[in-house]
Amino acid sequence: MYMDNLHFPENFLDDLAHAPGFDRENFVKAHELAPAPTSVRINPNKKTAFINAQPVPWCKGAYYLAERPSFTFDPLFHAGSYYVQEASSMFIDTIVRQIRETAEEEAFKILDLCAAPGGKSTLLASTMQEDDLLVANEIIKTRVPVLTDNLTRWGNTNTIVTNNDAKDFARLPGFFDVILVDAPCSGSGMFRKDPAAMDEWSEGNVKLCHQRQERILADVYPALKENGYLIYSTCSYSAEENENILDWLCETFGMESVRINIDSDWGIVETQSTKNKAWGYRFYPDKVKGEGLFASCLIKREETPRASTHKNKFQKLNFKEIDPLRPYVNESEKYHFFKVAEDWLVIADIHRDSMLALQDKLYIKKSGVRIGKLAGRDLIPDHELALSLIINKEEFQETELTEDQAIAYLRRDNIDIEINQKGWSLMTFKGKALGWAKLLPNRINNYYPKELRIMSTLEARDKKQETR
Ligand SMILES: C[S@@+](CC[C@H](N)C(=O)[O-])C[C@H]1O[C@@H](n2cnc3c(N)ncnc32)[C@H](O)[C@@H]1O
Asked: Which GO terms describe its molecular function (predicted)?
């Protein structure tokens, strides 16, 4: 027996009786008997490998682990080599890759509207091509830092984090090619992983969630371009939050449903909404190796004039001023260097105007990669540069740490190593950057960010590492 005394909320199972593909007996058994699998998604730009791992079939570079290691005490987790994510959620990878095959644009501006803690944002970042831009938004201010930390670890340059309400995006009509709304929901899909969530479930809450989902979608809809794609997902089993929302989108906005190619061996249930026959994809834990999920994809067919982006409103830069920074950035000629207070940042030149348009209308919490401050011609490097994919490592010394030393570094403890050099050094584990330290003749100053240091108990932190 995996879960003792399991009591599903009143009416929950009865309400699901008509949900497509629902099999009450096996569904209950899966909650009682089958432990939730542990799965990770590897960062394609900071690769690592796990022993005895089995691929997640609907996501490139994702694996089920044979056993659950301690992620908190794995330096590679902190280096951004992988993300611990519930497997069903990774289906967004299949959808995005399929959209890519048929879309008219080559480069995507993607909005992840409900992004914290960043599971799907890091997934989207992994699917990004060179000229794509990802805007990861989170409405709740206190949840923004975890999102920025996860994206910093992942290392991509062309990401912007915002802290806005869905309705604020209406100020950017037709701006995005793809919008993901991974909506706040009643959360029944997470019951196996988090049985405490059962106490929160009620039919009333499902109704409230449904209303909130419609509101969020209506608010963000203007920001999607004509022929752009909306990906809608929840971790709820309730039709009110899933197929009924698809019918509402088709009826209210004339959206067209996109059918996703899936392999019948994957165990995903393909459904269609009652009125408009819009396609949806249901994940049940008795049928797939993963938790509950609903995902869908629609196209906007309504004409949407694009907002014009202002040009050249940037402060004119003295090129001499950025010369000392260029060596630290690979292919620096492709990047736009800009300053926020004393800090220098970069984003790809092609996204300069987009960033400006976003700055005009939204609260930006992170833009591109923060390089650091200049003290004379010397760089005081930022943590974001260390973890980024654009760092020119040849310009820095590296100090390779053993596992124990890496953990000590991540705790901001003293590190016991012989010092042969001095100055800024990238601290690495298995060749992957963890952050900075300054080497002095008789000591090491640890510059790992205080707010990221490992400090809680293993169990508490480890639970937090796993998200949708
Ligand atoms: C299901 S979680 C997102 C998980 C995330 N996409 C991931 O993969 O890690 C839903 C998010 O929506 C946010 N949210 C809550 N109310 C919202 C609202 N009214 N509008 C937009 N987002 C909201 C929550 O703060 C939460 O971060």
From this structure: RNA binding; RNA methyltransferase activity
What residue type is 389 in one-letter code?
L
ipTM: 0.99
**Which amino acid, residue 69?**
P
Q: How many CB atoms lie within 10 A of CB 370?
A: 19
Q: Tell me which residues are annotated as active site.
A: 235
- Stretch(es) of the chain classified as CATH 3.40.50.150: 12-35+85-299
Q: How many helices (H) and strands (E) does the chain have?
A: 13, 22
pTM, full prediction: 0.96
Distances (CA, A) of 312 to 95, 317, 357, 409: 36, 11, 11, 43
Q: Count the helix, strand and coil residues of the chain and give each as a percent rounded to the nearest 5.
A: 35, 25, 40
CA distance 342 to 462: 36
If one counts every other C-beta atom within 10 angstroms of the C-beta of residue 306, the result is: 11
> Rounded to the nearest 5 degrees, what angle is found at the Cα of 432, between the Cα atoms of 332 and 419?
100
Atom 25 of ligand 1, residue of closest alpha carbon? 140
Q: Is 468 in the pocket of ligand 1 (CB under 6 A)?
A: yes
C-alpha 47/C-alpha 25 separation (Å) is 40
Give the percent of the chain with pLDDT over 70: 94
| 216 CB near ligand 1 (under 6 Å) | yes
Ligand 1 atom nearest the C-alpha of 120 is 8
**Hey, what are 81's tokens?**
């080599």
Ligand 1 centroid–CA 149 distance in Å is 16
Assigned CATH topology for domain 12-35+85-299: Rossmann fold (3.40.50)
* Residue of 41, 114, 141 to test ligand 1 pocket, by largest number of atoms within 8 Å of CB: 114
Two tokens at 90?
């990774």
Known binding site for S-adenosyl-L-methionine: residues? 114-120, 138, 165, 182
The closest alpha carbon to 269, from 283, 252, 289, belongs to 283
What atom in ligand 1 is closest to the CA of residue 467?
9
Rounded distance between C-alpha atoms, residue 69 and residue 183, angstroms: 30
Tell me which CATH code domain 308-395 carries.
Answer: 3.10.450.720
Q: How far is the CA of 443 from the centre of ligand 1 (A)?
A: 44
Helix (H) or strand (E) holding 426: strand 423-429
Residues in the chain: 468
Segment 174-233, tens digit of pLDDT: 999 999 999 999 999 999 999 989 999 999 999 999 999 999 999 999 999 999 999 999
Give the separation between CA 233 and CA 241, rounded to whole angstroms: 9
Task: Give the SS3 label for residue 361.
Answer: helix
> Considering only CA atoms, which of 362, 330, 328, 349 is closest in space to residue 436?
328
Q: Where exactly does CATH 3.10.450.720 map onto the chain?
A: 308-395
Distance from C-alpha of 371 to C-alpha of 339, rounded to nearest angstrom: 10
